Amino acid sequence: MSVPNEQMVNGYQPSSELPQRRSFGLIDALWAIAMLVGAGIGYAQYSASLDFYATGTLFGAALGLGFLGWIWPATRWLTAVVAAVSLFALWRYNILGADGAIGRAALAEFQESTFLFKFLLSSQAATMWMVALFFLSIPTYFISTLTRSAYGLKVGSALVWSGVAMGFIGFFSRWREGYLINLDYGHIPVSNLYEVFIVFAVVTALLYLYYEKRYNNRSLGGFVMLIVGVALGFLLWYQFTRDAEVIAPLVPALNSWWMKIHVPANFIGYGTFAIAAMVGIAYLIKDKMGGDGPNDRLPSLAVMDDIQYKAIALGFAFFTIATILGAMWAAEAWGGYWSWDPKETWALIVWLNYAAWLHMRLTKGWRGPVMAWWSIGGLFITSFAFLGVNMFLSGLHSYGEL
């Protein structure tokens, strides 16, 4: 079946609005080489502690940063700032714990007595900065969109970029702090609800910034950062009522290198699905108000439709990879690839939902409000798979109960 003429349905604009790709240049090549050199230095220093899989992850991350720096040059500055500040924090922590773990009390005393760590570089301080910056970006984006303030929208973007940087700095500090408390506690901080909510916020914000740059439009920032703000509101409640920020040892099943790749891939999927849903809300608001017009404050319907499609397609790819990785991890940990555990079952439901969304768009040519409503409904399905299963169901994946 042929796809309907997009200029005749739902007030779409010509595809010339949509962005073009960059060519690969000398600076891109130098950046990729710099990332590989950095990985080589890390390997030379810590090769005795790295197995085959950890080595692959190290150089895979370097290649990924090199590729990201090509398609999105702004991430070079983000990488440089996060690397410089995080390495400084880790250097100070390494001096403190040069001979191994120092214990929770000694670490807390050091953080409390050191100005930079108390107010900036510790995982808790950096995370609170991230929360504050993300919260501030929401009214900044909305007010600037309503008043058509280009400067205000730039401020909103700067707040999000700064929040992402602080989130990553807190991430790396928490990773090191686990080892300082107890060598057996050390792990990549993606193992419980508190840690993955931070991952969700950072990943979603960073992905949004990519679409903001790619489509050269900042007016959707308030919508996307609103869902990030909701997630962070839960994070604060979870922290202050349950002491969720306390670093604890891993349960045995999570003590695996699979966690380092399965969880991040999952949250790229969750983040893009959330972006698609919030763009869908903006789409429906604009469609209800008459569609494209001379007084628009939001991107055209065509652009918002394209963002939804690109976000769901990217998320579906990563969610598929994460599901396959999860099955392989399950086979190693529990002896079987699939057990119809509630988390697995709801992951399949999420996958089928977005597979159907993409199928109807690509083969039937569906566009417009129906797909926007569908992407919003998909967010509720995804939210239950992410959080609701932990709240209401139990199973092999019960590592993040409330």
From TrEMBL:
- Enumerate the spans annotated as Cytochrome c assembly protein domain: 190-397
Q: What is this protein called?
A: C-type cytochrome biogenesis protein CcsB
Kindly indicate whether the keyword Transmembrane belongs to this entry: yes
In the UniProt record, what gene is named as encoding this protein?
ccsB
* Pfam families, alphabetized: Cytochrom_C_asm (PF01578)
Entry membrane topology:
Multi-pass membrane protein
- Which intervals of the chain form a coiled coil? none
Q: Which residues are listed as membrane-spanning?
A: 24-46, 52-72, 77-95, 115-143, 155-173, 193-211, 223-240, 267-286, 307-331, 343-360, 372-393
Localisation: Membrane
Q: What is its main location?
A: membrane
Enumerate the InterPro entries for this protein: Cyt_c_assembly (IPR002541), Cyt_c_biogenesis_CcsA (IPR017562), Cyt_c_biogenesis_CcsA/CcmC (IPR045062)
Q: Which UniProt keywords apply?
A: Cytochrome c-type biogenesis, Membrane, Transmembrane, Transmembrane helix
